[in-house]
Amino acid sequence: MILIRHLLLVAVLFGASTAAAQGSSLARSDRAATVSSVPAEVLVVLAKEEPGKVDPQLKKLTALRRPPFNSFRSMAILSRPKLTLTPGKDALVSLPNGRRVKLTLLRIMPDGRYKVKAAINRPNKSDYLPLLQVVASAGDPFFVAGQTYQGGTLVVGVIVDPKKTAQ
Prior knowledge:
Layout: H1 2-21, H2 26-34, E1 38-48, H3 56-59, E2 74-79, E3 82-85, E4 90-94, E5 100-108, E6 114-121, E7 128-136, E8 142-149, E9 152-160
Antiparallel strand pairs: 1-2, 1-3, 1-9, 4-5, 5-6, 6-7, 8-9
């Protein structure tokens, strides 16, 4: 339980520090005023501490090479659903352990970043536990971890506007 809380806290801190490190530009500001919804991609990853393979697509994500994620020695992508985030509307992604992640685009910021809320429902319940709010740059993933599954941990990555690449 302590590991789960630690992972969630670090995921929140990583998202906040990543968002704070990003600059703004006039082009992004113009885009924010005209876009009402944005594509997103969710990475559902099974991570384990036992030695094994790391999916090559995950090796390029630097956040997964830093604590606490670097303690996982094997990572496999279980699914990669694509969805559209619209301000104020919930988007649901089913997890393999029977839970669901609810993502809500709270707003598109003037500098082109995205304020997103993530929540996961309780086991066998329809209500959602508040998890985190992040201000994310286009193409720059943020991660939530802590759900147990098949002897490992589900790591959920969210990439808002994946066609944009983070600088």
